[in-house]
Every structure is written in structure tokens, then in C-alpha cells.
Design a protein that fits this description.
This protein has 130 residues and is an alpha+beta fold. The chain is 15% helix and 35% strand. Strands 1, 2, 3, 4, 5, 6 and 7 form a seven-stranded antiparallel beta sheet that branches. A hairpin with a 4-residue loop joins strand 3 and strand 4. The longest helix has 10 residues. The N terminus is likely disordered.
Length: 130
């Protein structure tokens, strides 16, 4: 996850697209989550010689979790972005694989708002930097 200050705080995470297609194996995506709006965006950064067109997969919007009803929707929140977690957006699965050290500091500072398991998963990948 990376934090960028534009007009609001945006927390981002790096993910891989999970797909049975071999050509999708090494595709990487950036998932940005707006803390102010509770919306997420997904885009694929340029990768040299990948042979695919990169760019936006999803504009900022609230994304309903699979299985939640239209009448009582449940949306993704930052608590859902633990390292190793898989989120599903429009039948496409994304596995969370990395984040910035700033995200760990943000989650620890606001620990009451996030599950301990999410914080621990991020702490584990940054253990050598602490």
C-alpha cells in the first residue's frame, strides 16, 4: 500500500490478478482505497514487454463483496486488504501481495478500527524493516 496525499488520503496495495490463463500469471495491479470516500480504484501499471494494454480496471467506486445482497450490501473496507487475502471485483480475483511501510504505521496508529490479523499480516512482510 502506498499513501498519496492529493485532496484526501488514499491507501494503496499491490496485488496480482489470479487467473487460470498463463498469460495473466505475472500481471500486477495497484488497488487504491480512498479513506475519505470508502471507495477503491484498481489499475494496472505499465510493465515492459508484457504484451498487454495496461491502465484502469476500475474507477473509484464502492465495491460490493461477493454474496452480499443488493438490499443489504456489504462493501470492501481497508480491513479486507490483509496480505494474502483475495478480493473479488466483477468476478475477477486479486490477491494482496505487498504494501508500503506507511500502511503498517497508519493501521497501527488506528488499530481499534482494523482487525489484528490484517495488521499482523502487514507487519510480517515488513519485519526486516522494523
Amino acid at each position: 500500500w502506498y499513501l498519496r496525499r492529493v485532496r484526501e488520503a488514499v491507501v494503496s496495495t499491490q496485488s496480482t490478478g489470479e487467473s487460470p490463463n498463463p498469460e495473466d500469471k505475472n500481471r500486477k495491479f495497484i488497488i487504491s482505497y480512498s479513506l475519505a470516500k470508502d471507495e477503491m480504484q484498481i489499475y494496472e501499471p505499465h510493465q515492459r514487454n508484457a504484451g498487454i494494454i495496461e491502465g484502469k480496471f476500475l474507477e473509484y467506486s464502492q465495491v460490493r463483496k461477493p454474496g452480499s445482497s443488493i438490499d443489504n450490501p456489504e462493501y470492501y473496507t481497508p480491513a479486507d486488504f490483509a496480505i494474502g487475502a483475495t478480493i473479488e471485483v466483477f468476478s475477477r480475483k486479486f490477491k494482496i501481495v505487498d504494501c508500503d511501510l506507511y500502511v503498517l504505521k497508519y493501521l497501527e496508529a488506528n488499530g481499534a478500527r482494523f482487525p489484528a490479523a490484517t495488521i499482523e499480516s502487514i507487519r510480517a512482510i515488513h519485519a526486516d524493516k522494523l
